[in-house]
Design goal:
Elements (H helix, E strand, L loop, with lengths): L3 H6 L18 E2 L4 E5 L6 E5 L2 H4 L19 H10 L11 E5 L2 E10 L2 E8 L7 H11 L6 H16 L3 E7 L5 E8 L10 E2 L6 H7 L4 E4 L7 E5 L25 H10 L3 E9 L2 E10 L7 H59 L5 H18 L20 H9 L4 E6 L2 E6 L4 H8 L16 E4 L10 H6 L2 E6 L6 E7 L4 E6 L8 E3 L2 E3 L6 E6 L8 H18 L13 H8 L20 E2 L4
Parallel strand pairs: 16-23
Antiparallel strand pairs: 1-11, 2-3, 2-6, 3-11, 4-5, 5-6, 7-8, 7-13, 8-9, 10-12, 12-13, 14-15, 14-18, 16-17, 17-18, 19-22, 20-21
Helix pairs in contact: 4-5, 4-8, 5-8, 8-9, 8-10, 8-13, 8-14
């Protein structure tokens, strides 16, 4: 089925009605808070929104040209603000609490264009405290099993925290058209899930502002806006002598055509959080409510943090998904090669049996022998006791050998069968590989018995004694059983990766001092550097799962009638396997269960 997103991407982006309007300089604010614009050095108020009289009970004329600290009732609050808000300050401990005429307000400070902008709104009651909401949100997004589940958990979390009727996740394509890919709603309001929205819904200028201002909050589209009053001539609009850039101001008023747009949808309040990936607007969390909806500052912050956690998990999981898709493709290719090679070798061996005793049989047998060797050299090394792991004539790995290493991002590998060692790439010596294999069932776990038949560690030296030369090439191993009847192993190796850690003080036991009650924490937290040796890059669950899938394929082929190592005559069953597309299959067992996780052993650093 064609992807409709691709078709929509071919359309040119549509312009928005206010693409060319200076929407970042409206010269007015929404009704839910007061905006103060002040000189950072003197704290002198240069602009104040006209709703100060309504919210503070103080006329704008009595605020302008005075320090904003004069608004604050308590000396302790004034001292705290004076300590944390200074010229040159960029990051502020928002929100700062202000008590003005006996009423509490949240004040959010930010610095832009050499002025301090202060957004002040009344403190609102909320059902849960900030810590509780934040912990719930973090737990919800901690470890989703898939990207799709991440989408759904994120919208559900923002829906629960905000209390909005509907929360949607938009994803934009290259032409800025959006599609709702996840949604959480209250009952009875229908669904927008799967719908596409044209790029003209969010103009180019608005999209650019989303890259810089993470949140947009409109609690009541029907509420009036309030102009800025100033000590200067003009109103702070873009066309005035002293415009105020409100790109980072949540109180910024809403342009009329966007109000109309929201009215057309039928909602009376909205809130959105941008999803910016690689300096591009990947998507939005859009919240809709069918009545005016006030949300506390803490609730908005938790929603923002949820969106930020979502971005982090999205980037992490997307890269993992892409990497795993590449590995899965390599596994399918290798599996196809193995199936075809097994069937082809049986065909060749069958021909050899048919030609025995006929004229010219020696020549035919020689040709067939070379053909069998060619098959084995390509990918038969995973199936045959007799095959070698020789590289190509120029010393490089064969395509199948490279695929084998790429499956788990290994540096080298080896196959051990009946005392024979087949090395791939820059693996340890045959003697070292055989010694490692002999440890299975002794110092290392038994792979033939039990349920898992797989083992991984990023620190082999903590399990068995190894020389520095072996450690350099095989600091970590991932091993699977290729047969459940006789000892046959595929072992992947990762090289030592020396890391330098900078600790806050020496973390070793020697740095601890004995006290009356035992050991005391170290006294020094000075930077202390340490080279960490003996470790490879850590194996992850995706490595184990795909290694287990390959082993399942190999074991399945090895157990089929007319085994690889016999000289059995070619039969109809082998021919059907060679000809039938179904013989080129993915694994014959279910994906590795959660038990596989337990075989990943991380060496103690």
């Amino acid at each position: 089925m064609r992807d409709l997103r691709t078709a929509i991407s071919n359309l040119p982006p549509a312009e928005h009605l206010y693409d060319w309007d200076p929407i970042h300089m409206p010269g007015s604010v929404q009704a839910y808070g007061v905006l103060l614009v002040a000189d950072p050095r003197t704290r002198r108020v240069l602009f104040v929104s006209d709703n100060a009289a309504e919210i503070f009970g103080i006329q704008p004329s009595n605020i302008l040209d005075n320090s904003y600290l004069m608004l604050v009732d308590h000396e302790m609050e004034r001292a705290f603000i004076a300590e944390h808000v200074k010229p040159g300050t960029i990051l502020f401990p928002n929100p700062l609490r202000m008590t003005i005429r006996g009423k509490e307000y949240d004040a959010v400070f930010h610095s832009h264009n050499n002025v301090h902008q202060i957004e002040v709104e009344p403190v609102r009651e909320q059902a849960a405290g900030y810590d509780e909401m934040a912990l719930r949100a973090a737990a919800e997004l901690y470890d989703p099993p898939s990207v799709e589940e991440l989408y759904q958990r994120a919208v559900r979390t923002i829906w629960q925290v905000s209390g909005f009727d509907r929360v949607m996740l938009y994803r934009f394509d290259s032409r800025s058209n959006g599609q709702v890919i996840a949604e959480a709603t209250r009952d009875g309001i229908g669904s927008f899930l799967g719908l596409f929205f044209p790029s003209s819904d969010i103009g180019a200028r608005a999209r650019d502002m989303y890259l810089h201002n993470f949140t947009r909050y409109i609690p009541d589209i029907g509420a009036p806006s309030f102009a800025l009053k100033s000590v200067f001539p003009g109103s702070g609009r873009a066309d005035s002598a002293h415009p105020v850039d409100m790109s980072f101001t949540n109180l910024r008023s809403v342009v009329p055509c966007h109000i109309t747009y929201l009215q057309n949808i039928g909602i009376k309040a909205s809130m959105s959080f941008s999803i910016n990936v690689d300096d591009k607007l990947w998507g939005l969390f859009a919240c809709h409510h069918y009545e005016p909806k006030r949300v506390s500052y803490d609730q908005r912050v938790v929603c923002e943090q949820t969106a930020m956690m979502f971005i982090y998990r999205l980037v992490s999981m997307s890269s993992t998904v892409a990497r795993m898709a590449k590995r899965q493709k390599a596994l399918e290719t290798l599996g196809q090669d193995l199936n075809v090679a097994a069937a082809l070798r049986r065909r060749l061996l069958g021909l050899a049996a048919d030609w025995q005793g006929t004229a010219g049989d020696k020549t035919a047998q020689a040709l067939l022998a070379r053909a069998v060797q060619a098959v084995e050299a390509e990918c038969g090394f995973l199936l045959s006791d007799q095959a070698s792991c020789q590289a190509t004539s120029d010393g490089t790995l064969t395509p199948s050998q490279r695929l084998l290493l790429d499956l788990v991002e290994a540096d080298s590998a080896a196959i051990v069968r009946h005392g024979r060692v087949c090395r791939i790439g820059d693996a340890p010596s045959e003697m070292a590989v055989y010694a490692i294999a002999s440890m299975f069932g002794r110092e290392l776990p038994e792979l033939l018995g039990g349920e898992l038949h797989i083992y991984a560690t990023d620190c082999l030296s903590i399990q068995v004694p190894v020389t520095d030369a072996v450690k350099d090439r095989a600091a970590g191993i991932l091993a699977v059983a290729l047969s459940l009847d006789t000892p046959a192993y595929l072992i992947w190796f990762r090289r030592e990766q020396i890391e330098q850690a900078t600790w806050a003080g020496n973390p070793s036991a020697d740095a601890m001092s004995a006290g009356a009650d035992g050991q005391n924490p170290r006294a020094s937290f000075d930077a202390w550097k340490q080279d960490i040796r003996g470790l490879s890059r850590s194996w992850v669950i995706e490595d184990v799962r795909i290694a287990d899938e390959l082993a399942t394929i190999v074991r399945g082929l090895g157990s089929q009638a007319g085994a690889w190592n016999s000289m059995a005559a070619y039969d109809a069953e082998a021919e059907s396997r060679r000809m039938a597309p179904s013989c080129v299959l993915a694994p014959q067992a279910a994906p590795a269960s959660a038990l596989v996780r337990r075989v990943i052993r991380i060496g103690h650093r």
